[in-house]
Design goal:
One of its GO terms (molecular function) is kinase activity. Belongs to the CoaE family. The chain is α/β, with parallel strands linked by helices. The chain has 9 helices and 5 strands; from the N terminus they run βαβααααββαααβα. The chain binds dephospho coenzyme A and adenosine-5'-triphosphate (ATP).
Length: 196
Amino acid sequence: MRVGLTGGVASGKSTVSAILAELGAVVIDADQLAREVVAAGTSGLAEVVAAFGDDVLTAEGELDRPAMGAIVFADPEKRRVLESVIHPRVRARAAEMEAAAPAGAVVVHDIPLLAETGQADGFDAVVVVDVPAEVQAERMTVLRGMTPEEARARIGAQASREQRRAIATYVIENTGSLADLRTEVERVYDELAARG
Ligand SMILES: CC(C)(COP(=O)(O)OP(=O)(O)OC[C@H]1O[C@@H](n2cnc3c(N)ncnc32)[C@H](O)[C@@H]1O)[C@@H](O)C(=O)NCCC(=O)NCCS
Ligand SMILES: Nc1ncnc2c1ncn2[C@@H]1O[C@H](COP(=O)(O)OP(=O)(O)OP(=O)(O)O)[C@@H](O)[C@H]1O
């Protein structure tokens, strides 16, 4: 059973992934892989520096993520350039990790840009974590210290709620408490495990 998990920024995907992992799923996290493929010393980071210059490096020679975010969330062309370096590497790593998963596992691919990149058809089921944009913006500003402008830019770089909901097999509404979220995730996991 191969499951795609997606949702807008700060919708609660990582929280859902963590609960699914506790329930027994194998989770492959595209955001985490996207960090690994541009770690210090990788060919990915070298390509990013070739495209964007040394200004996107910290003094320690790592990717300066806030600086990179300020560039790419203000300019769709530059975002495409960064994605063209990172996405193929993430897909290759995710495929390797999936191949190493135990037979019969529920494998969950946590992919923020699942709707945007047209990958939904490749999964047995797609789970969409959904919240209104105001909730996303509040979580980004209050919990993560972003400015309202930064939050708006990131939400604006993504598919609309409607576009994400259109690819969903299951929609998890995450406007209640964390306890409500857990109950909902358990319900969806039981259905996924029964289908697999
Ligand atoms: C621009 C970067 C350096 C900013 O790093 P930062 O630590 O601030 O954010 P992080 O990587 O933790 O991402 C947080 C969230 O931002 C959103 N986001 C990230 N990249 C993108 C993108 N290209 N388009 C739209 N939303 C994005 C997602 O909702 C993601 O879950 C980083 O997001 C990045 O390398 N993005 C390009 C790679 C990518 O597309 N990643 C998404 C999954 S593969
Ligand atoms: N139901 C909820 N009630 C309160 N806080 C929540 C709820 N769901 C998630 N959060 C909090 O909101 C923040 C964003 O959640 P999470 O990190 O799971 O989102 P995400 O979709 O993975 O984000 P990103 O797209 O940036 O990777 C976290 O601090 C999380 O603890």
